[in-house]
Design brief:
heterodimer, A: 8-stranded mixed β-sheet, B: Rossmann fold, 11 helices, 12 strands, globular, transport (chain B), ATP-binding (chain B), Oligopep_ABC_C (chain B), AAA+_ATPase (chain B), nucleotide-binding (chain B)
Chain lengths: 341, 355
C-alpha cells in the first residue's frame, strides 16, 4: 500500500448560494521520498485538498467523503483528537505567508518549542536546544541568538525558513507546502527551493507542493497533478506534463507563461474566459467553455463529464478527445507555437 | 531615433524621513530611490525590475507625481514637472496615467463601473460629443468588457475583469504615457496572459508608451523593449531586452536571471545556478559604495569604497559595476582579466552553501 493514498476525496461546503464543490472526486497516491506538485489556478481546490488531508476541515461545515489513507490509517473517518496527534508529528504544513501563519506575540523559538513539546515528552531545555538545531539546519545564521527573535524581526526569507524549521521539528513523514515561495522575491525563492530539495532528501519525507507556478513545480516535483474545478484533469511524471502534456488546460497553462528559456514569442496564448465558479461548475467537462478544442468532441464535452483515463504508463488525462488526437494536436498545433518562432 | 524622449528622469531621489520622539526629530531616512536617471522614448515599453524594496514602485509614483521627489528632475515632453503645482499639473494628468497592482483595492466598491471609468471625464471637465456614457461604453468595449455592464459594481467581476476596468479607467482620457505597477502579478496565470496581450494590443492601437514595473522577469522580458534593473534605490543595469537577457553585465542581473525557475524539468539539471546569500539589505542603511557588494561573489576591495558609476559599456547598454561580465572589448583588459577569475568564483557560491 502506498504511503499516502486519496480515494475519491470530496470536500463540499454548503453555503447560502449553493453547494461549493471545492474538491470533487480526487484520487492519487504518493510514496515516501517523492514529491508531488499540485498545480491549479485560484479556486481549483488545491489548498482545500491540502487542508483536508491535514484534517483541518473537520468539525466545520465541510462535507467530506472518500478516503485518505496515510501509512495504513484512514483519516476521513478518524476522530478529530486522533488526527490532531498526527498533525505536526506525522504530517506538517508550510504555509504561504509566514507573517500571518506565525504568532506575532511569541518568539520564533517559543513557537517551535511548543510544537515540539506537544508531541515529545521532553524538558523545555531539550526542546530549546532542538529548536536551535532546527533553525541552524534551515540556514538561519546565529540560531542560538535568533531563537529569541520575534517573527517581525525576521526578513521574509528567514521567516519562511523558520516556518520550515517548525514544520520539520517533529520529523514529519508527510510535508505539505502550500505556495511556499509565492510571497518571496526571486533570489530568495531560489534559496528556499534549494533548501526544500535538500531537506526532503535528508528527511526522506513525502512532499506535496501546491502552487500556481509551473516553474516552481518543475524545480521540485517528481509527479504533477493538474487540478481544474475541483478535479484532477491530468496526472503524470513531470516529464509527462512538460514534454507530452495531453490536456487542453495544461496546454493553456504552458501557452500562458512567458518563459526565459525560450525566444520571446510574438504573443502569449492565453486561455479564454476565467476559472469557473465552484457553485455553478459548467456541465459536462468543467473546462469546456474555455477549451479551444471543445467542438472537436462533437458536443460530448458539454453533456458528459469525461473520465480520468490512463493514456500510457501512469499518465492520466481527463478529456473526451481520443489519445491519438490529443497527441497529434500537441505535436502539430501547440508545441510549435510554444517554441521559438 | 534622435528625437527627444517622452520622459526623462535625471538624478531622481526620494528619501522618506524616519522620525522619532515627541518632537518628530529626524533620525534617518529610507533612501527608497537614490539618484536614478533614465529616458523613456515615445512608443516604447520600459520595464523596471527588481526585488521588493528596491524602489521600483516609488519610482512609478514619483514619475506620476503622486509623491514629491526629494531631488532630481523629471521632464515630461520637454516640460520640467519635478515640482510643478498640482493645479498646473492637472492638464498633464490626462497624458500620464497609472495602472495599479491590486484590482481589488484600486476600485471603489461603492461606485459602478460607469462611475469609475467615467470619473476622469468628470474630474477633467471633459464633454464628449455623445455624452460620457457613450464614451465610457466605447472604452469598456476596447478593453474587452461588455458595455452593458455599465451599471454593475466591481464585486460582480472576476479579478481579470477588474484589472480590465482599471485599464479602462486609465485609457479614458487617451493618455500618452502609462505607468503600470505590477499590472498582472495579482492575476491567475491564464488571466495574466490575457492582460499582457491586451496591453500589447492597446499599445499598438493607441500609440501608447509604457513604463512597466514588475518583479517577474519573464513577464518583463515579454513586454519590454528596454529593461532597467534596480537594486536598493539605484539602477544597476539598463539595456535593450536582448542585451539584458542574453548578455547581462551586472552580477545582480545575472543572479536574478538564474534564480527564475524554468518550467522544464530537463533544464533544471543542466543549469548552473548562482545562489545569492542572504536578503536585500535595508534601504534605511544601505551598504556603502556599490550596494550589491554584500551579496556579490565578485566583490573586491574597490567595491566597498568606490561607488561604480552607471557607464555605457556597449551601445545602449549601461551598467554600474566595477567588474562587469560579458563586457565587450570596450572595457579592455580589466574586464577580460576579471571574467577569467569570475568563472571559478562563480562556481563557489553555487556549490558551497545550501542556504
Amino acid at each position: 500500500m502506498s504511503f499516502l493514498e486519496l480515494k475519491d476525496l470530496r470536500i463540499h461546503f454548503p453555503t447560502d448560494d449553493g453547494l461549493v464543490k471545492s474538491v470533487d472526486g480526487l484520487s492519487f497516491t504518493l510514496e515516501r521520498g517523492r514529491t508531488l506538485g499540485i498545480v491549479g489556478e485560484s479556486g481549483s481546490g488545491k489548498s482545500v485538498t491540502s487542508l483536508g488531508i491535514l484534517g483541518l476541515h473537520k468539525g466545520g461545515r465541510a462535507r467530506i467523503s472518500g478516503e485518505i489513507w496515510l501509512d495504513g490509517e484512514e483519516l476521513v473517518g478518524a476522530s478529530q483528537e486522533h488526527v490532531r496527534t498526527l498533525r505536526g508529528k506525522k504530517m506538517a504544513m508550510i504555509f504561504q505567508d509566514p507573517l500571518s501563519a506565525m504568532h506575532p506575540f511569541y518568539t520564533v523559538g517559543d513557537q517551535i518549542i511548543e510544537a515540539y513539546r506537544i508531541h515529545n515528552d521532553v524538558s523545555k531545555k531539550v526542546a530549546r536546544k532542538h529548536a536551535i538545531d532546527m533553525l541552524g539546519r534551515v540556514g538561519i545564521p546565529q540560531p542560538a541568538r535568533r531563537v529569541d527573535s520575534y517573527p517581525h524581526e525576521f526578513s521574509g526569507g528567514m521567516r519562511q525558513r523558520a516556518m520550515i524549521a517548525m514544520a520539520l521539528s517533529c520529523d514529519p513523514e508527510l510535508l505539505i507546502a502550500d505556495e511556499p515561495t509565492t510571497a518571496l522575491d526571486v533570489t530568495v525563492q531560489a534559496q528556499i527551493l534549494d533548501l526544500m530539495r535538500d531537506l526532503q532528501r535528508d528527511f526522506d519525507a513525502a512532499l506535496i507542493v501546491i502552487t500556481h507556478d509551473l516553474g516552481v513545480v518543475a524545480e521540485l516535483s517528481d509527479d504533477i497533478l493538474v487540478m481544474y474545478g475541483g478535479k484532477c484533469v491530468e496526472y503524470g511524471t513531470s516529464d509527462d506534463i512538460f514534454e507530452r502534456p495531453e490536456h487542453p488546460y495544461t496546454w493553456g497553462l504552458l501557452g500562458s507563461m512567458p518563459r526565459l528559456d525560450r525566444e520571446p514569442t510574438e504573443r502569449l496564448m492565453p486561455i479564454k474566459g476565467s476559472p469557473p465558479s465552484l457553485i455553478n461548475v459548467p456541465s459536462g467537462c468543467a473546462f469546456h467553455p474555455r477549451c479551444a478544442f471543445e467542438e472537436r468532441t462533437a458536443g460530448l464535452a458539454k453533456v458528459e463529464v469525461p473520465e480520468l483515463r490512463e493514456t500510457e504508463g501512469g499518465h492520466l488525462v481527463r478529456c473526451h478527445l481520443p489519445a491519438e488526437r490529443r497527441r497529434a494536436i500537441w505535436r502539430n498545433e501547440i508545441k510549435p507555437n510554444l517554441e521559438a518562432s | 531615433m534622435n528625437e527627444e524622449p517622452l520622459l526623462s528622469v535625471q538624478g531622481l531621489e526620494k528619501h522618506f524621513p524616519v522620525t522619532k520622539g515627541l518632537l518628530q526629530r529626524q533620525v534617518g531616512a529610507v533612501r527608497a530611490v537614490d539618484g536614478i536617471s533614465f529616458d523613456v522614448r515615445k512608443g516604447e515599453t520600459l520595464g523596471l525590475v527588481g526585488e521588493s524594496g528596491c524602489g521600483k514602485t516609488t519610482t512609478g509614483r514619483l514619475i506620476t507625481r503622486l509623491i514629491e521627489p526629494s531631488a532630481g528632475k523629471i521632464v515630461y515632453a520637454g516640460q520640467d514637472i519635478t515640482h510643478m503645482s498640482q493645479g498646473r499639473l492637472r492638464p498633464l494628468r490626462r497624458d500620464v496615467q497609472m495602472i495599479f497592482q491590486d484590482p481589488y483595492s484600486s476600485l471603489n466598491p461603492r461606485h459602478t463601473v460607469g462611475a469609475i471609468v467615467g470619473a476622469p471625464f468628470r474630474i477633467q471637465g471633459i464633454k464628449t460629443e455623445q455624452g460620457t456614457k457613450k464614451a465610457v461604453q466605447g472604452i469598456l468595449e476596447l478593453v474587452g468588457l461588455n458595455p452593458e455592464h455599465y451599471n454593475r459594481y466591481p464585486h460582480e467581476f472576476s479579478g481579470g475583469q477588474r484589472q480590465r476596468i482599471g485599464i479602462a479607467r486609465t485609457l479614458a482620457l487617451k493618455p500618452k504615457l502609462i505607468i503600470a505597477d505590477e499590472p498582472v502579478s495579482a492575476l491567475d496565470v491564464s488571466i495574466q496572459a490575457q492582460v499582457v496581450n491586451l496591453l500589447e494590443d492597446l499599445q499598438g492601437e493607441l500609440d501608447l508608451t509604457y513604463v512597466v514595473i514588475a518583479h517577474d522577469l519573464s513577464v518583463v522580458r515579454h513586454i519590454s523593449d528596454r529593461v532597467a534593473v534596480m537594486y536598493l534605490g539605484k539602477i544597476v543595469e539598463i539595456a535593450d531586452r536582448k542585451g539584458l537577457y542574453e548578455s547581462p553585465m551586472h552580477p545582480y542581473t545575472n543572479a536574478l536571471l538564474s534564480a527564475v525557475p524554468i518550467p522544464d524539468p530537463k533544464r533544471r539539471k543542466e543549469r548552473e545556478r548562482i545562489r545569492l546569500q542572504g536578503d536585500v539589505p535595508s534601504p534605511l542603511n544601505p551598504p556603502p559604495a556599490c550596494r550589491f557588494h554584500t551579496r556579490c561573489w565578485k566583490a573586491q576591495e574597490i567595491c566597498t569604497q568606490v561607488e561604480p558609476p552607471l557607464e555605457t559599456l556597449a551601445p545602449g547598454h549601461q551598467v554600474a559595476c566595477h567588474f562587469p561580465e560579458n563586457a565587450p572589448g570596450l572595457a579592455g583588459g580589466l574586464a577580460d582579466g576579471v571574467s577569467g577569475g569570475a568563472a571559478s568564483a562563480g562556481a563557489v557560491p553555487a556549490g558551497t552553501d545550501p542556504a
